Amino acid sequence: MKPAAFDYARPDTMDEAFDLLEHHGNDAQILAGGQSLAAMLNMRLASPRILVDITRIEALRTVGTFDGAVDVGATVTQDRLLRWPGLTTQPLLTTVLPWIGHPQTRQRGTVCGSLAHGDPSSELPLVLATLGGRVILSNAKRTRTLSAAKFQTGAMRTALEPGEMIVSARFPTAQEGQVYRFHEVSPRRGDFAIVAVAVVADSEGVTVGVGGVADTPSVRRIEWLETDAFTDAMNEFAWDLHATNDVHATAETRRGLVRRLGAKLIEEARDALSLC
Amino acid sequence: MIYRLIFSSDHLHPTRLIVSNARMEHVGRSFERVEDPALLRGAGRFADDLAEPPGCLHAAFLRAPVAHAEIKSIDTKNALALPGVTAIITGSELAQHTAPFLSGVKVNAPQYALAIERVRHVGEPVAIVVARDRYVAEDALEIIQVDYASLDPVVDPEVAAEPTTQLLHPDAGSNVLHERRFKYGDPDQAFAEAAHVVKTTVRYPRNSCTPIEAFVVLATYHPGENVFEVTANFQGPYTLHPVMARALGLPGNRLRLKTPPDSGGSFGTKQAVFNNIVGLAVAAKVSRRPVKWVEDRLEHLAASTSATNRVTTIQAALDADGHITALDYDQLEDCGAYLRAPEPATIYRMHGNMTGAYTIENLAIRNRVVVTNKTPTGLMRGFGGPQVYFALERVVDLAAARLGIDPLEIRRRNLVPPNAMPHSTAPGAVLDSGNYLGTVDRAEHEGDLAELRARRAQARADGRLYGIGHACIIEPSISNMGYITTLLTPQERARSGAKNGALATASVNFDPSGAVTVQVSSVPQGQGHRTVLAQVVADELGIYPSTIVTATDHDTLKDPWSIASGNYSSRFAGAVAGAAKLAAARIAERLKSIAASDLNVPLSDVELTDGMARAVSNPDNAIPIERIAAKAHWSPLSVPLDAGAGLRETAFWTAPELSEPDTHDRVNSSGAYGFIFDFCGVEVDPLDGAVRIDKYVTAHDAGRILNPTLADGQIRGGFAHGFGAALLEELTYTPDGAFLAGTFSDYCPPYASDMPELKILHDQSPSPVTPTGAKGLGEGNCMSTPVCIANAVADAVGCPVNTLPLTRERILKLISIEEPVDPKPTRIPPLELLGDGHALRGEGSATVPASPEKVWETILDPDHLPAIIPFCHAVEHDGEHTYRVEASFGIGPIRGRFQAQLLLSNLDPGKGLCLNGDATGALGCATGRSEIRLTKCEKGTRVDYAYALLISGKIASVGGRLLEGAVRGQIAEIFGRIAGANTTKTASGLRARLAGWLRVKS
Amino acid sequence: MLYLSADGRHPVRFTLNGRYVEGEAEPRLLLTDFLRHEIGATGTHVGCEHGVCGACTVRVDGLVVRACLVYAVQVDGCRVDTIEGMADGDELNDLQLAFQRHHALQCGFCTPGILMSLSQLVEEEPHADGSRVREVLSGHLCRCTGYYGMVAAVMEVLAARRKAKNV
């Protein structure tokens, strides 16, 4: 398991990076933490002509609160975000980050890399979608902002165009009166999720995000009604995800997990709200 | 060199000969390991750490992406032209240099180190590339073209055994390569007279112990001497050395096999490196350079070896009191694509103790061994035990339920009683020592089973799913080299000559400085043999373990060994340490003889202790042992004649009890038999199907314990493997033979956070068979733990557990929560596609703003294909409605070029058609069928499609989790493009729209 | 900007266990292979080459990293620490000694990577509890031990270091 040959470029500035991406188009692949990409290269599932290592671009290393959101630069690792003192502004991230891989992979793996990879079982795309976050994309000429739903278009598919890269991701900060819950089921802790569910509840209702089932994280808003209604809503949601089989779980098992985890987390969130 | 190699019949009966006065000071105590200081600083000497010879080249294997196919052609031209590539060896070339491997069963199903003309499992080696480095070798793998003609894959052993099934080895005449029936006592009568008969069928899965260090082989050919010199992390048994030598057409002394000082775990697996050794030997000879191969993880998981999966139908006859009067096993063993030596040993290893820990007089066994399109099986920790006990201990639980007896009570009623020891079982094992009931009583008390029962009662009262499981098992150790011949009829055995015993070897040497070295052929893989040998030898010689240097790296050219050498069947503590003890005891006698003369006392008055030879009658009359030892070297003429010159002893030991199977097929298949009683409490979470082990107690009687810390380490490690087998680990295949567990994310060994606490208890009933009194203990929990957890889960969920591992998926199926109906049943797709139930299936639709006739034209126009197929490189019209396409599969950063053949059929102009095809590329193979239907609609044409795809090879092995979404995306892309082709005329516009695919970073 | 062509061998220089080392690497050469076969530091082992087993774990600028998922050219100019630098000269450090005492290793193949992860844990998290220790260990696979001795060893070292520092 050794990678195919590639050129290696390490730009020091954004402009240098854009030049490379523009010039090499589809032949170029951005390398940040490499926790998914390098494994794929080792297995020769991928063999780009050139790797553009963006980790030494100073401008991409920032994390801060901006425009009502936690703004995470392209090369900020999951571990660094977890240790960032300002993370208290978004408890769902605090809850979810420790679920991603292992402490070792989080020290190298980046937040934006995980979003760009678009693995349907990854936690961060689910969090971004559930919170209604955005991704900031730039190329040499322009910068655009896409909602999570517009950004990830399928399993490992995103709206990124040739020459373009993620500059940062914005996770909206917590609003007064919101309650967050998250849980995931995987073969072993740290593995990719069979099903992951994130819940954001407020006095009006609950936003439920599900990962690991459909090709992209799926989000549904359910208004507070009597108990049966959200059970029914979760059943409909489970079916709507068009779950499929893989080596770890069948579609039926996935639907069942969506229903039960969803119901459990919604109830927990509702109970927590009633205490507020 | 002056030393005596002692091997006479007298020395084969050591336990009757050895009289040792040495005080046992070190054996039985925990010592820190002599192995650790080097390993802890990264200074271990593992196979891939050793210096490579000058000019060493590196090999990579081209492996089959499909389960079953004829190899029509292999084109290596482009790969050979790659700079840095020295040689490519294919099956046909290898066959010119080697003969097929010998197998324990005489059938016409030859196996070589490479596939010859046909591949029979995913991952089977098809060619060896030899290149400057591994990177370049893998570059070459990508561009070797193999043309396969697929054959029906056979994956399920029950299907394989049916006469109408496709044969893997047509010349063998059947997929059942071995079948024998055995009867001991009168099982027919016992079943006829039984008050109760309980029956169940269980399926033990494929799993593997997956050492973290994979296989390593470094082969050199010395042309002047016609000698192959190979260093490999082989673990034995050395019965395989003649198998390798014979394949190479050489006598054993021309295959010099060396093992490195350290090995990164094996648990049986590294037995299977032997066929790679032969492949690399040929590669070295052909390329005239040393060649090294380091197996990677994908290769190891997909194609190294595996435990057998087994389907067992077991019946137990019981009297009204719950005594088991007879057992009937019908075992169907799946050995994978070839019977690779020493298979079918897995199914016979337990033969003598198939009655378990119980007194059962009547026994019937039917053994069938089938081949299927899966990786060949071989040694694996627990070897044969987990398969047998999963059946036996499940049926005991079912019997308890049938009779309304507590599961522990029914076990007590049937356990071999202490006064029956040694106990001859119906099929011939001699259970050598133990007080099984005593061990059960003690564990019940010290493990506080009563409290666990109370916990279960409370949990159930709270509405939780809580269960308790038990297992009583016999752990055999020190395999009889003759047990495998039980597969022959007594007449066949008589013709082929007796095979018996379990010869262990050890050498102990005093050098002229008076320092001691010990060398054994145990080929350890991390167990700490060097530490224990120092303890054992120190006690015999009256010296300190810290002064002893032990060597466990081995060289068949220079070191003593025999066919039973190696690291398997838990033979170290009893047999190998036993041989070392014998060698040391003989040297001790000689030291005493010299000392008696120097101290001027009778021989019987000399004791060796604390580094001194001392007169027992006058402890002040003493001389350092190193001085006596030096004397044997420096002044050989001055030592007594009977002490001899030089001080080196090599002992060969075997248990005299290990005779060949008798004419009634009774066989004492192992030298020693330990006893294990396990119980555990588990809670099953109906929310997510998780099994939580609340408490686990394992009680062992493995005879004398040589080093308690190391013994517990072995038990914990075995437990971790048993735990993984029970809950997490499976080498998964699809029904068409695609392998799905190619990474450690798909094959799931337990992490630290998965492991429950483990309470270990020991009894020590010394084995009367082994020189040390020790029995094996490292495999037992691989045998007991899977079924103990299965029994507990069955108790928790209230229904039988018939297969493993108990993944969340299986648990949730067992609990069988009824699924609420789909509130939108109309979403079921309009197209019904016949397809294999296990294929990747999907459907979709697209609306095209053009008439059905126009869309029809687009689909049928070969000029349009390059625009429709994503990443299309070339399209060739290959006959009517047949196309050859070269394109790339692409999703995210994943991209792989493939060649496909597409066939359009069932053409119904303007209405619909079928599109079928095959694709092959470096990422794997696919066979697909699809149906397309066109319907006129308001906006133009509605295109409905459905597809079924079978995918195999690397992409299925490592990317299974993502495959469905990936395929769905790519196919939707194609139909999106069909739609697009009718609106935008230029392909470039489409490309621009879709070009964002490959931008990924992490 | 650095641009290294695929077919060239390029200089790679870094500080390995406090000493300057240099070698040459194609861009695709994995850090594991560079350390083991270019530098001869064979203590870092290769177990899966897809980032799960953790046998190849090293520290780069203090962070724990899977060396199989890093290219040698990426660590140019960095500080790299491997198992070979853990002992204090001839003396094993407290973590290594605790591993020996608690029989936390058998074949020892996974051990170097595990010790590198744990070295960070005991440095940075003196109050880590058993569950946190297991979490960190879960970035590694060991097939010999069941991890029991490792957990015991780390807990002992954490307690001893806390006591020594009076924290």
Structure description:
The complex is a heterotrimer of chains A (276), B (1002) and C (167). In chain A, 33% of the residues lie in helices and 26% in strands. Chain A has helices at residues 14-24, 37-42, 78-83, 91-96, 103-106, 111-117, 123-131, 148-151, 227-240, 251-275; strands at residues 7-10, 28-31, 50-53, 63-66, 69-73, 134-138, 143-147, 152-154, 157-158, 165-172, 179-185, 195-201, 205-211, 218-223. Chain B has four domains: 4-30 and 503-653, Aldehyde oxidase/xanthine dehydrogenase, molybdopterin binding domain (Aldehyde Oxidoreductase, domain 4), CATH 3.30.365; 51-151 and 215-295, Aldehyde oxidase/xanthine dehydrogenase, a/b hammerhead (Aldehyde Oxidoreductase, domain 3, Alpha-Beta Complex), CATH 3.90.1170; 170-207 and 306-485 and 660-815, 2-Layer Sandwich (Aldehyde Oxidoreductase, domain 4), CATH 3.30.365.10; 825-998, 2-Layer Sandwich (Alpha-D-Glucose-1,6-Bisphosphate, Chain A, domain 4), CATH 3.30.530.20. Chain B has 25 helices and 37 strands. In chain B, the strands form eight sheets. An eight-stranded mixed β-sheet of chain B has the order 4-6-2-13-10-11-12-23, sandwiched between helices. Chain B has a seven-stranded antiparallel β-sheet with strand order 31-37-36-35-34-33-32. The longest helix of chain B is centred in the middle third of the chain and has 28 residues, at 572-599. Chain B is globular and about 115 Å long. The longest helix of chain C is centred in the last third of the chain and has 18 residues, at 148-165. In chain C, strands 3-2-6-4-5 form a five-stranded mixed β-sheet, sandwiched between helices. Chain C has 167 residues and is an alpha+beta fold. Chain C folds into two domains: 10-82, Ubiquitin-like (UB roll) (Roll); 94-165, Orthogonal Bundle (DNA polymerase, domain 1). Chains in contact: A-B, A-C, B-C. The interface between A and B is large, with 78 and 66 residues.
